C-alpha cells in the first residue's frame, strides 16, 4: 500500500510541476507579446497572446488573473493590429466579465471597461455612417459605468460625435446629447473645448428651428472666439453658423455679412483650394441671391460648382433652385445631377441602418429634399416634362422605401428602381395610373396639399393636380354646404383628377391613395348625376402604382388558410364579471398607462366571441372543399387559431389567408411625435387570435405568443407566396397616418409579401360580411380573377333586398 501512496504522491508532484512549467510558458509568451507590441509589432503580439490563452485553456486556468490579462491584451493588440471590431470586442468583453468576477469593481476592472469604450470610439470613426451609431451608443453606456467617467475626454468626444451623427436622423437626439455635454462641462468645470460644444448645441437648435435658443448659444461661442482674437477654423465655423441662422429667419443682409467674414478667415488660414472654401462660396452665393443681389449670387454659385473640391451635388441643388424661375431646362439638368448623386448615398446609408433610424432618416435632412425639390420645381414649371417625371420618380422612390423597405428586407430590384417609363409602359390604352402623395412636411405653398400624379401610356410625362386637404376634410366632416344629394367630395377630389385624365367611361383607373383618402371608399363617391365613380370607371386600388405590372398575371388558388370562430378567452362562453386590472395583460397595461381608463375598458369590453365568423369560415370551407384537395384547406377555429399557428406559415404561406376576427387600431397621435407614433402604430394595430384574453395564468403570456397578432409581428414574417389576404374584421383598413404613407395592417402584410388585401374601413355587419365572403369565394372558384370575384360579390350585396344600403357593402375595399 505504501508503494501506491508514494506513486500517487510522485504523480501529483509531477503533474503540478508540469502545470507550473506550462503556466510559466504562458507567462513568458505574454511578456514576449508585450515587448513586440512596444516595438509596434502588434500582429505578432496578438498571435503570441492567443497562444498563451490556448495553453491556459489546456490546463483549465480560465478563471485566473493571468487569463484575464491575456484576454485584455489580446483585445488591445487586435485594435492596434487593425483587426475587426468583432475580434476586439470578443476578447476585451471576456476580459471585463472575468475581471468583474475576480476583483469586483476594482480599478483594473474599470480600466478594461474604459479600454473597451475607447476601442468602440476608435472603431466608430472607421465604421462609417450610420453603422457607427450603435458602436458609439454602446461606448457611452460603458463609459457611464466608470465612477470617474465625467473626467474622461473620450467620453465627451463620444457624446459629441454621436450628437453630430444624429443630426440627419433625429435632431431631438442631437439636442439631447448636446445639452448633456454642455450641462456636464458646466457642472464639473471640466477642462475641455466647451465652446465647441456650446456652438454645436446652438447649431442643433437651429436645425430644429428653435431659433431663439440657437441664437443664444451661437452668440456665446462667437463672442468668446472673437474676444480671443485668434483667426482659425473655429472662428470661421462660428461665422458660418451665424450666417446660416440669419438666413433661416430671413435676415439675408446679416447672413451675407457673416459669410463674408467666414470667407476671409478661410482664405487667410487655409487658402482658396479647400472644400470648406468651396462650401463658403456656395452658401455666400445663396445668401446674396436671396438678398436680391442676383448676379453676384449666381456668380458665386458658379464658382462653387467648378471648384475642384466642391460637393457638386449640393451646389447643383442650389443652382436648380435659382434656375427654377429663370430657365426650366437648366433647373432640370442641375436637379437631375443632385437627384442621381443623392439617391446613391441614401440607399447606401439606408441598407446599414436599423429600422427605426431608417424612418427618421427618410423624414429628415438631405433625404427630405429629394422629395421636396422635385415637387417644388415641377409645380413652378408645370409644363416641363423632365421636372414632372423627376417629381413622379421621387414619389415612387419614397413610397417604395418607406412602405416596403423600412424593415431592411431584401426587395426585388424591380420594385426599388421603378420610374415613370416603367409605369407608363405597363398601362393599356384604356388605363390610367393615379399616384397620390400627402406629406405634411412638403407643403410648399401653404396649406395642406395632396399631390396627385396621373399617368397614361401615350404621355411623355405625368400630369399633376393639387387637391386642398382642408377642403377635403371639410367635406368629410359635413362642413361644405351643398344643394344636391351628391357627395361634395366629388368636387374636391374626383373633378380635378378626371378633368386632367382624358379618360372615357369604363376605362380602368389604378389609384394609389394617401393620407385621409386611404380611409374612405373613394371609389364610391357620387357625381352630380348620382353616379358612383366605381360604376362609371373600373377603379383598382393599389398600394403604389409600382405594383401595376404584377397585377397583369392571374394566379391560381392552390391552398387556403381560414381563421374564424376563435375562442379568445379559452374559457366557458358564459363567464361574465369584472375584467382584470389592465396591468395583468401586456397590451392593455401599456395603453392604460398612456391613455387612462376609458379607452382601455371600452375597447376591452367589446372583445366578445363572434358566432358569425364561425358560420363564415365554415361556409367558405364547404365551398372550397368542392374545388380544392382537403389537405390544401386549413380551418382554424375555437382555440386552434393561435398566434403560433399563424407564424408557422412564414416561408410556406398558402395562396389565400382568410382571417375573420376582431381587428384593432388604437390611435394616440396627440400623445407623441411622428417618430414615436410610427412605432406605436406598428405595435397597436393588429388582429386578435385564439387565447388573446387568456390572462389567468401569466406564464402563458409572452410578447411573441400572447394571441395578439400585431402589425410589427406580421411585417417580420415571409408571406411571399400568398396572393391574397382577406381581413374579415372591423376597421382592418384603418391605420396610423404618418408623414410618409400608412402604418398598420395594410403595410404589415405588404411588407410580409402578400400581393393583395381585402379589408374594411368601418364597422361591418356580420351577416352582410358572411354573405359577401361566401359569394366572393364561389365566384373565385368558378374561375373569376380575385378582383372580378370581389366586385361581383359587392354587386350581389348591393342588389340584395336586405343589404343594398351603402354601409353594408361600400366599406370593404380590395387593394393590390
Beta content comes to 5-15%
Shape by Cα distribution: flat
- Class by SSE composition: alpha/beta
* First and last CA, distance: 89 Å
Spatial order of the strands forming the largest sheet: 7-6-8-12-15-16
| Tally of contiguous helical segments | 34
Biggest β-sheet description: 6 strands, mixed
Q: Please, could you describe this protein's structure?
A:
With 816 residues, this protein is α/β, with parallel strands linked by helices. Helix content is 56%, strand content 9%. The strands form four sheets. A six-stranded mixed β-sheet has the order 7-6-8-12-15-16, sandwiched between helices. A five-stranded mixed β-sheet has the order 3-2-1-4-5, sandwiched between helices. Helix 1 (2-38) packs parallel to helix 3 (65-80) and helix 25 runs antiparallel to helix 26 (597-605). The chain is flat, with a radius of gyration of 33 Å. The protein starts with a helix and ends with a strand.
Please describe the topology of this protein.
Layout: H1 2-38, H2 42-58, H3 65-80, H4 85-103, H5 107-127, H6 132-143, H7 153-165, H8 171-188, H9 194-207, H10 211-228, H11 233-248, H12 252-269, H13 275-290, H14 294-306, H15 312-323, H16 328-351, H17 355-362, H18 365-380, H19 385-404, H20 413-416, H21 420-425, E1 431-438, E2 449-455, E3 463-468, H22 469-476, H23 489-501, E4 508-512, H24 533-536, E5 538-541, E6 560-566, H25 586-595, H26 597-605, H27 611-625, E7 633-638, H28 643-647, E8 656-660, E9 663-665, H29 674-684, E10 685-688, E11 708-710, H30 711-715, E12 724-728, E13 736-737, E14 742-743, H31 745-752, E15 756-760, H32 766-781, H33 786-798, H34 806-809, E16 812-815
Parallel strand pairs: 1-4, 4-5, 6-7, 6-8, 8-12, 12-15
Antiparallel strand pairs: 1-2, 2-3, 9-10, 10-11, 13-14, 15-16
Helix pairs in contact: 1-2, 1-3, 2-3, 3-4, 3-5, 4-5, 5-6, 6-7, 7-8, 8-9, 9-10, 9-11, 10-11, 11-12, 12-13, 13-14, 14-15, 15-16, 16-18, 18-19, 25-26, 27-32, 32-33
Amino acid at each position: 500500500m505504501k508503494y501506491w501512496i508514494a506513486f500517487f504522491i510522485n504523480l501529483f508532484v509531477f503533474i503540478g510541476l508540469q502545470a507550473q512549467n506550462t503556466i510559466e510558458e504562458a507567462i513568458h509568451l505574454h511578456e514576449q507579446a508585450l515587448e513586440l507590441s512596444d516595438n509596434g509589432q502588434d500582429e505578432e503580439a496578438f498571435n503570441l497572446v492567443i497562444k498563451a490563452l490556448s495553453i491556459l485553456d489546456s490546463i483549465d486556468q480560465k478563471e485566473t488573473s493571468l487569463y484575464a490579462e491575456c484576454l485584455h491584451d489580446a483585445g488591445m493588440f487586435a485594435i492596434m493590429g487593425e483587426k475587426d471590431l468583432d475580434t476586439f470586442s470578443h476578447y476585451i468583453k471576456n476580459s471585463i466579465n472575468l475581471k468583474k468576477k475576480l476583483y469586483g469593481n476594482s480599478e483594473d476592472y474599470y480600466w478594461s471597461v474604459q479600454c473597451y469604450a475607447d476601442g468602440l470610439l476608435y472603431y466608430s470613426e472607421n465604421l462609417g455612417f450610420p453603422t457607427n451609431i450603435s458602436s458609439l451608443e454602446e461606448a457611452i453606456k460603458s463609459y457611464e459605468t466608470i465612477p470617474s467617467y465625467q473626467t474622461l475626454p473620450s467620453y465627451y468626444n463620444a457624446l459629441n460625435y454621436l450628437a453630430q451623427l444624429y443630426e440627419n436622423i433625429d435632431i431631438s437626439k442631437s439636442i439631447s446629447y448636446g445639452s448633456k455635454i454642455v450641462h456636464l462641462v458646466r457642472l464639473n468645470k471640466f477642462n475641455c473645448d466647451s465652446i465647441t460644444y456650446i456652438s454645436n448645441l446652438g447649431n442643433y437648435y437651429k436645425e430644429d428651428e428653435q431659433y431663439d435658443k440657437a441664437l443664444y448659444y451661437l452668440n456665446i461661442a462667437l463672442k468668446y472666439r472673437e474676444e480671443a482674437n485668434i483667426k482659425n477654423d473655429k472662428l470661421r465655423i462660428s461665422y458660418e453658423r451665424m450666417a446660416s441662422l440669419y438666413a433661416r429667419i430671413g435676415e439675408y443682409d446679416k447672413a451675407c455679412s457673416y459669410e463674408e467674414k467666414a470667407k476671409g478667415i478661410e482664405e487667410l488660414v487655409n487658402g482658396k483650394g479647400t472644400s470648406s472654401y468651396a462650401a463658403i462660396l456656395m452658401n455666400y452665393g445663396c445668401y446674396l441671391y436671396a438678398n436680391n443681389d442676383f448676379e453676384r449670387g449666381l456668380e458665386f454659385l458658379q464658382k462653387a460648382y467648378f471648384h475642384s473640391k466642391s460637393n457638386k451635388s449640393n451646389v447643383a441643388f442650389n443652382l436648380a433652385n435659382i434656375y427654377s424661375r429663370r430657365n426650366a431646362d437648366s433647373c432640370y439638368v442641375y436637379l437631375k445631377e443632385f437627384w442621381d448623386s443623392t439617391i446613391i448615398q441614401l440607399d447606401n446609408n439606408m441598407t446599414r441602418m436599423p429600422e427605426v433610424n431608417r424612418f427618421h432618416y427618410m423624414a429628415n435632412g438631405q433625404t427630405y429634399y429629394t422629395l421636396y425639390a422635385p415637387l417644388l420645381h415641377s409645380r413652378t414649371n408645370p409644363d416641363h416634362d423632365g421636372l414632372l417625371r423627376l417629381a413622379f420618380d421621387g414619389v415612387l422612390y419614397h413610397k417604395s422605401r418607406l412602405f416596403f423597405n423600412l424593415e431592411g428586407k431584401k426587395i426585388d430590384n424591380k420594385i426599388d428602381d421603378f420610374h415613370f417609363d416603367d409605369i407608363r409602359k405597363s398601362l393599356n390604352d384604356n388605363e390610367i395610373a393615379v399616384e397620390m402623395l400627402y406629406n405634411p412636411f412638403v407643403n410648399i405653398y401653404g396649406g395642406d396639399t395632396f399631390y396627385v400624379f396621373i399617368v397614361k401610356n401615350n404621355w411623355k410625362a405625368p400630369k399633376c393636380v393639387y387637391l386642398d386637404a382642408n377642403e377635403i376634410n371639410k367635406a368629410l366632416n359635413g362642413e361644405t354646404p351643398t344643394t344636391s344629394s351628391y357627395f361634395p367630395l366629388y368636387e374636391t377630389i374626383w373633378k380635378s383628377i378626371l378633368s386632367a385624365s382624358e379618360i372615357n367611361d369604363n376605362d380602368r383607373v389604378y389609384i394609389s391613395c394617401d393620407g385621409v383618402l386611404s380611409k374612405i371608399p373613394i371609389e364610391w363617391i357620387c357625381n352630380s348625376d348620382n353616379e358612383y365613380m366605381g360604376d362609371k370607371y373600373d377603379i383598382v386600388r393599389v398600394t403604389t402604382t409600382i405594383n401595376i405590372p404584377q397585377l397583369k398575371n392571374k394566379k391560381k388558388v392552390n391552398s387556403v388558410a381560414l381563421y374564424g370562430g376563435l375562442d379568445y378567452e379559452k374559457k366557458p362562453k358564459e363567464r361574465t364579471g369584472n375584467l382584470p386590472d389592465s396591468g395583468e395583460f401586456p397590451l392593455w397595461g401599456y395603453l392604460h398607462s398612456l391613455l387612462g381608463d376609458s379607452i382601455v375598458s371600452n375597447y376591452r369590453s367589446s372583445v366578445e366571441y363572434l358566432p358569425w365568423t364561425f358560420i363564415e369560415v365554415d361556409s367558405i370551407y364547404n365551398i372550397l372543399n368542392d374545388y380544392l384537395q382537403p389537405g390544401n384547406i386549413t380551418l382554424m377555429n375555437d382555440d386552434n387559431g393561435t398566434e403560433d399557428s399563424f407564424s408557422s406559415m412564414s416561408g410556406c404561406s398558402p395562396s389565400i389567408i382568410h382571417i375573420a376576427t376582431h381587428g384593432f387600431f388604437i390611435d394616440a397621435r396627440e400623445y407623441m411625435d411622428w417618430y414615436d407614433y410610427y412605432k406605436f402604430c406598428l405595435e397597436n394595430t393588429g388582429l386578435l387570435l385564439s387565447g388573446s384574453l387568456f390572462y389567468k395564468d401569466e406564464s402563458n403570456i409572452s410578447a411573441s405568443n400572447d394571441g395578439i397578432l400585431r402589425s410589427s409581428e406580421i411585417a417580420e414574417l415571409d408571406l411571399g407566396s400568398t396572393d391574397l389576404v382577406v381581413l374579415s374584421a372591423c376597421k382592418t383598413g384603418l391605420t396610423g397616418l404618418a408623414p410618409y404613407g400608412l402604418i398598420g395592417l395594410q403595410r404589415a402584410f405588404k411588407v410580409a409579401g402578400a400581393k393583395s388585401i381585402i379589408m374594411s374601413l368601418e364597422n361591418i355587419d356580420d351577416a352582410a360580411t358572411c354573405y359577401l365572403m361566401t359569394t366572393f369565394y364561389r365566384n373565385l372558384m368558378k374561375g373569376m380573377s380575385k378582383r372580378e370575384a370581389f366586385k361581383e360579390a359587392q354587386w350581389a350585396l348591393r342588389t340584395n333586398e336586405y343589404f343594398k344600403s351603402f354601409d353594408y357593402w361600400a366599406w370593404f375595399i380590395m387593394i393590390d
